[in-house]
């Protein structure tokens, strides 16, 4: 979202009762979020501890010696002393080039750092908890074997995994694995990212998106509960104890997306929604040309 649109959206979200804010250094929106939060904190409308603030290490920082530089930069942009959760955004690394979060080679390939090592990287993540710069640490877009390797070597185990998860990509195996290992799962693109086609079109990329929200099963359950499709798929994940972070800049949709705590899906609804899983992944990072050759690319078949 553009800065002004985002500023209004964060205001509207806080007014609507949202208290979990998910951002990342690569989203380039930490400064705007920081500005709004600072307004709410300094006016006394909210205290720092009322907010659960999450940000992420950019792929250009995926090596032990870069972690502190990037978390401190995020804290400065967000105007806070600590975040509640700091995530390794992706398992693969890019070259660390100042001022370029997505560096590309002259041939148009993403400029990768193929020496990414999760064990040493994780030790640097743990050091940020020790330093008080984050309350907790986790990972995003990691696969099961990558998580397993961190768990085997961690002093502070990851407490959260953030992954693409929606009705068409329910990630049941990975969710079960996380449950066994006491890792909370957060679903990004929980609505199936309906705005992604428009976003990618700006870069001349055409993608075919599955329409999760208008799926007839979702719509029938929505009619039964007098809710809309978005509220049904969000409630489905929440009833499975999955954290959801739907994105909206529209105040009306923002309010709808948090208005999911006054009804319950019954077993039949849950079973029908569970049955929609089709393993359709929307975000596989292929927009980064050449990324599938990185040794830590997570979605190899
Ligand atoms: P907008 O910001 O105009 O509301 P996801 O979180 O799955 O990535 O989806 C984000 C996209 O979904 C955004 O494009 C957002 O558009 C759209 N969106 C958010 N809430 C709803 C809703 N309740 N119904 C339909 N589309 C929504």
TrEMBL record:
InterPro entries: AKR, Aldo/ket_reductase_CS, NAD(P)_OxRdtase_dom_sf, NADP_OxRdtase_dom. The record marks 56 as: Lowers pKa of active site Tyr. GO terms for molecular function: oxidoreductase activity. The active site is at residue 27. Keywords: NADP, Oxidoreductase. It comes from the Eukaryota. The keyword Transmembrane helix does not apply. It holds the Pfam family Aldo_ket_red. Substrate binds at residue 89. Residues 3-276 form the NADP-dependent oxidoreductase domain. Belongs to the aldo/keto reductase family. This is 1,5-anhydro-D-fructose reductase. It comes from Asbolus verrucosus. The lineage of its organism: Eukaryota, Metazoa, Ecdysozoa, Arthropoda, Hexapoda.
């Amino acid at each position: 979202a553009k800065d002004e649109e985002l500023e209004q959206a964060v205001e509207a979200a806080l007014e609507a009762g949202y208290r979990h804010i998910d951002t990342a250094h690569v989203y380039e929106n930490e400064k705007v979020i920081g500005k709004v939060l600072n307004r709410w904190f300094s006016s006394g409308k909210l205290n720092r501890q009322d907010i659960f603030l999450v940000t992420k290490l950019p792929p250009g920082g995926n090596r032990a010696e870069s972690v502190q530089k990037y978390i401190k930069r995020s804290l400065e942009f967000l105007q806070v002393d600590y975040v509640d959760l700091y995530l390794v955004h992706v398992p693969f690394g890019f070259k660390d080039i100042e001022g370029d979060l997505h560096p590309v080679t002259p041939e148009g390939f993403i400029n990768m750092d193929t020496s990414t090592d999760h064990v040493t990287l994780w030790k640097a993540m743990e050091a940020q908890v020790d330093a008080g710069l984050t309350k907790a640490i986790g990972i995003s877009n990691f696969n099961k074997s990558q998580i397993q390797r961190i768990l085997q070597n961690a002093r502070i185990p990851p407490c959260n995994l953030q992954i693409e998860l929606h009705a068409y990509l329910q990630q049941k195996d990975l969710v079960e694995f996380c449950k066994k290992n006491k890792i909370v799962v957060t679903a990004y693109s929980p609505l199936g990212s309906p705005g992604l086609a428009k976003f990618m079109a700006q870069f001349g990329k055409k993608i075919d998106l599955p329409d999760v929200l208008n799926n007839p099963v979702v719509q029938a359950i929505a009619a039964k509960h007098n809710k809309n499709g978005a509220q049904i798929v969000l409630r489905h994940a929440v009833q499975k104890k999955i954290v959801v972070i739907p994105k909206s800049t529209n105040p009306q949709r923002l309010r709808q997306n948090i208005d999911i705590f006054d009804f319950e899906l019954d077993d039949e609804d849950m079973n029908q929604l569970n049955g929609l899983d089709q393993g359709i992944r929307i975000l596989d990072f292929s927009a980064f040309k050449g990324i599938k050759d990185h040794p830590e690319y997570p979605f190899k078949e």
